[in-house]
Every structure is written in structure tokens, then in C-alpha cells.
Task: structure prediction
Amino acid sequence: MTEADAVPPRLVVRLPAGRLTVRGGDVPSVQVLALRPKLGTDARAVAAAEAASVDVSTAAVQVRVPDPPGRGRTPQVLVEVAVPAGTTVVADCPEAEVVCTGHVGALRVSTSSGSVHAEEVTGPLEVRTGRGPVTVLDCRGPVDITSSGGVVVLRHVADRAVVRNRAGDVHVWWLAASAEVATTTGNVRLGWSRADPVHLVLASNVGRVQAEVPSRTGAAHEVRVTSVSGDITVEASSPGR
Result:
């Protein structure tokens, strides 16, 4: 276990495969709670964990697990970090699952096949994923998600959102700002408050389009959704849903 002595503004993690868990809460500094192989019998994972580095500076705490030499399955390493609430998290995790509990600030995740789950993100949320589900419960900053495949579920989105998902569904329980959503084969289901005027621009080549809230030209907010073959639904919703 490695503990950072200072409180940096950012946590930066490079993890080729495995799982990254970030716990945002009432702690005085960034603390690396665990850095170990997923399986103690996996010699390559043991070697990767032992070769990992933790660097602390005034700008960031950086946790880096090296890419494995040679061919073969990427060894899986488990990294668990506790951070002060509101810490910016930057995660480069090609084949790793990313889980953020509690309250983090900005969250930027890049993965090719790992899933992303976060409870509360108060800064910008940016996710780039090849395939794998993305689930975020509370998004208070702007949202920018690009996925090639996998379901994207956002419970509450308070700021502008852009979501592009080529082969997966998009479900936002409640939107409170303008949004742009595009899919190729995935269905889109969005929630909007009837009390908040919105201009809806909805188009699907072969899918069904339904809206429970009226579209008002000139409204301050615009929700634009396009799909090639997916269904599009905008339903009446509220923050407490």
C-alpha cells in the first residue's frame, strides 16, 4: 500500500487491464489503498503489479502499471485509490473496468473494452470507449461520451450533453440542458421535465419516434437525437425519478 502525502488537484492512472476503483470522499489526501494482481497465481500479473509506479508531484498523483512485454493476454491488476471529494480523475485503461464511488470532480476515461461506472461527477465527464457499458448516476458538468458499442445509462444530467453510441442504447433518465445524441443501431430513451420548454429535433431512418413532451420552437434548450435504425423516445420525467 502506498500513500500520497500531498493533496494534488488530479489523479492520473494508466492501467492496461484489470479494475480501477476510485473512492471520492472525506480524506485529506490521495491514498493508493491497493495495487495487486487480480490473481496471485498469475505470474505476469504479479510482475506487472510489482513494476507499477506511484509518482507524487504538486500537479498530480500518477499511478502507472506498465504494459506487459511479449504476446499473450494482458495481465489483470487491481488498483484502488481514495481521493478527496472533487478530485479530478484521468484514467487510461484499455482493458480495465473503471469504478468511481462517492464524489469526484472532472472524470476523463479512455478504454477500449472496459466498463465505466461512476456515482457523482461534478466536473466535465468525458468517456471514450470501444465497447463496454457506461453508467453514471449524477452528472453535474458537461457530458461528452463516444462509444462504439455498449449501453450508456445516465441518471441525472444537469449540463449540456453529447453522446454518440454506434451500436448500443442510450438512456438518460432526466435531462436539464441541451443535448445531442446519435446512434446507429441503438435505441434512445430520454427524460425531460414538462415544465421546462425544449425544442425537440428527432429523426430515425427506420425506428419509431415518440415524444411525451411538446416541442417548442425558440426554446432555450434543444434536444437533438438521430438514429439510423433505433427507436427514439422522449418521455416526461423529473429530477426525483
